[in-house]
């Protein structure tokens, strides 16, 4: 890892009167891990809670980025040559280190992303869970697999998994630690090297995990972090990667996919959503309302799987809205680096502008603001109240567009079929939620929803925390999956190897082809009844 930036980064010492920032110089040490960036002006990042400078970050050029890929490519060969069990042990040690040093990660995530500490803890736990999961299961999932051959006994066949090579990973700012772990760790344990481009806003969180991974035994060049705007270094990432894993907005994802496809490189895209929640008539209203608070306002709604539309059966709608509003109003907003606040701030000025304009537009097109609906500069420059809307019409932009903020629209319905249809009536298909006292009914409704993850009696956390199952989007919400077996195997090339013995798959010398094809036909018919194939 090359250090190209002089010691110049500084984290704020206190926020909201609570001391909790890492010691002075800590940001500098993390920034020194960034690869490239000597030849272009650095950028200064600000903490959303305060507007104070958190770090001054080097910005890579196109040439820097390509050089970093070359360095990663050299490191990849030695890393891939290590037994998978050894690579998995690095993840086990990382799991330990993340849990042991979590306080520092919580501070960093809060400082960079502006979220409440409990929401930052979601990131720590997802990181630890995913390290443990792949540390435990990667050796089995990556092991060569025997398969029945074309001719029983005579064809020995199997499947071998090879790493892709160097994986390019582009990450957003909203879940900087968890998404780094979920995308980078399986790529590494599969024997790839990684070049990651985190968002500038939240680079320190990724760099923190990078430092811990090195302490856990990862060779330093196997995971490289470059920083820079996508418009400047995106081409280099697309052109140098053997696989591209992108997480971000749907428009950027579509643009990148077009460019990646011309190179026939494989990729996965984790994109936006307009996630629905359906409250069935038999639901426990209090539990559903409490669940909705987390589902809609965790990380101030800046969560790809956050709920932005709620369909409540008409028989309980009024009661639900009352309960939901009361619980939302009880949510404490704050900027402290401790667990005292239930919701933090938005992360950037762009986010504040986007959220404000969506709510203003909904108001102007006839929506009622049940609670919230205004910025809170008294708490910090980017705070916005958790907002519940009713009476939202199709003319409102947020009716169909992702807001990516603490804003939710509540609608009524009388027939469950209608609620399912309206929930599915969107170009997106990322996450959904169903609330009912009848788990079986919940499962059945869930299976009818066109979303990559569906949570019954939870907003998003049940699937998000179950890292052994795949997570990703249908329709405009993405291509491919993270987590589960797919989240690991996507970073590999499958290779089939078959060893043929004795009889070839062609008529032996002297046997007329017509006779041979007859014998083969009889054989194929018999094979259908052979057990174990
Ligand atoms: P974004 O604007 O698409 O940016 C995401 C990342 O891509 C950033 O690092 C960004 O860096 C980079 N980027 C932008 N243009 C690029 C280009 N031409 N080439 C290469 N990289 C480029 O998305 P965002 O607004 O930051 O993130 C919010 C969106 O992400 C929401 O739509 C949310 O739903 C989605 N998201 C999805 C998931 C999921 O798992 N499905 C998870 C989290 C977020 P620069 O801006 O510096 O260029």
From TrEMBL:
Domain Aldehyde dehydrogenase intervals: 42-496
Pfam family, one: Aldedh
Residues annotated as catalytic: 270
InterPro entries: Ald_DH/histidinol_DH, Ald_DH_C, Ald_DH_CS_GLU, Ald_DH_N, Aldehyde_DH_dom
Gene Ontology MF terms in the entry: oxidoreductase activity, acting on the aldehyde or oxo group of donors, NAD or NADP as acceptor
Region (Disordered): 1-22
Gene3D superfamilies referenced in this protein's UniProt entry, alphabetically: Aldehyde Dehydrogenase, Chain A, domain 1, Aldehyde Dehydrogenase, Chain A, domain 2
Keywords on record: Oxidoreductase
NCBIfam families recorded: PRK09407.1 (NF006916)
Sequence similarity: Belongs to the aldehyde dehydrogenase family.
Name assigned to this protein: Succinic semialdehyde dehydrogenase
Annotated organism of origin: Prauserella flavalba
């Amino acid at each position: 890892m090359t250090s190209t930036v002089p010691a110049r980064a500084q984290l704020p010492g206190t926020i909201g009167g609570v001391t909790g920032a890492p010691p002075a110089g800590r940001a500098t040490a993390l920034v020194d891990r960034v690869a490239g960036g000597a030849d272009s002006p650095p950028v200064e990042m600000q903490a959303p809670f305060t507007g104070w400078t958190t770090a001054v970050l080097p910005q890579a050029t196109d040439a820097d980025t390509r050089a970093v890929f070359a360095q990663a490519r050299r490191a990849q060969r030695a890393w891939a040559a290590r037994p998978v069990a050894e690579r998995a042990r690095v993840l086990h040690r990382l799991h330990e280190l993340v849990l042991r040093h979590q306080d520092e990660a919580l501070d960093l995530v809060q400082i960079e992303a502006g979220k409440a500490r409990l929401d930052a803890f979601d990131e720590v736990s997802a990181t630890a869970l995913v390290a443990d999961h792949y540390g435990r299961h990667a050796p089995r999932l990556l092991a060569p697999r025997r398969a029945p051959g074309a001719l029983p006994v005579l064809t020995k066949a199997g499947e071998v998994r090879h790493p892709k090579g160097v994986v390019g990973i582009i990450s957003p700012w909203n879940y900087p630690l968890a998404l780094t772990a979920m995308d980078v760790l399986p790529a590494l344990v599969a024997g790839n090297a990684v070049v990651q481009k985190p968002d500038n806003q939240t680079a320190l969180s990724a760099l923190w995990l990078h430092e811990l991974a090195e302490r856990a035994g990862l060779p330093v060049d196997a995971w490289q972090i470059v920083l820079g705007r996508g418009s400047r270094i995106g081409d280099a990432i697309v052109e140098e990667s053997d696989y591209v894993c992108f997480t971000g907005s749907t428009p950027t994802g579509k643009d990148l996919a077009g460019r990646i496809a011309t190179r026939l490189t494989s990729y996965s895209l984790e994109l936006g959503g307009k996630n629905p929640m359906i409250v069935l008539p038999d639901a426990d209203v209090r539990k559903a309302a409490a669940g909705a608070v987390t589902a809609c306002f965790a990380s101030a709604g800046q969560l790809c799987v956050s709920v932005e539309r709620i369909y409540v059966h008409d028989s309980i709608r009024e009661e639900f809205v009352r309960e939901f509003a009361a619980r939302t109003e009880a949510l404490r907003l704050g900027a402290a680096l401790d667990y005292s606040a239930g919701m933090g701030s938005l992360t950037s000025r762009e986010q504040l502008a986007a959220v404000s304009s969506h709510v203003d537009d909904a108001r102007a097109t006839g929506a009622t603001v049940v609670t919230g609906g205004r910025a809170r500069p008294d708490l910090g420059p980017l705070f916005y109240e958790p907002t519940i809307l009713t009476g939202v019409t199709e003319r409102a932009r947020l009716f169909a567009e992702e807001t990516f903020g603490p804003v939710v629209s509540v609608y009524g319905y009388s027939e469950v079929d209608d609620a399912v249809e309206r929930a599915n009536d969107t170009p997106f298909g990322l996450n959904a939620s169903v609330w009912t006292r009848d788990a079986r009914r919940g499962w059945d409704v869930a299976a009818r929803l066109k979303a990559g993850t569906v949570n019954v009696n939870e907003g998003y956390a049940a699937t998000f925390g179950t890292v052994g199952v795949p997570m990703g989007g249908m329709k405009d919400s993405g291509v491919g999956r993270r987590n589960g077996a797919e989240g690991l195997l996507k970073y590999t090339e499958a290779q089939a190897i078959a060893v043929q013995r004795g009889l070839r798959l062609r008529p032996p010398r002297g046997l007329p082809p017509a006779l041979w094809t007859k014998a083969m036909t009889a054989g194929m018919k018999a094979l259908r009844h052979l057990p174990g194939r």
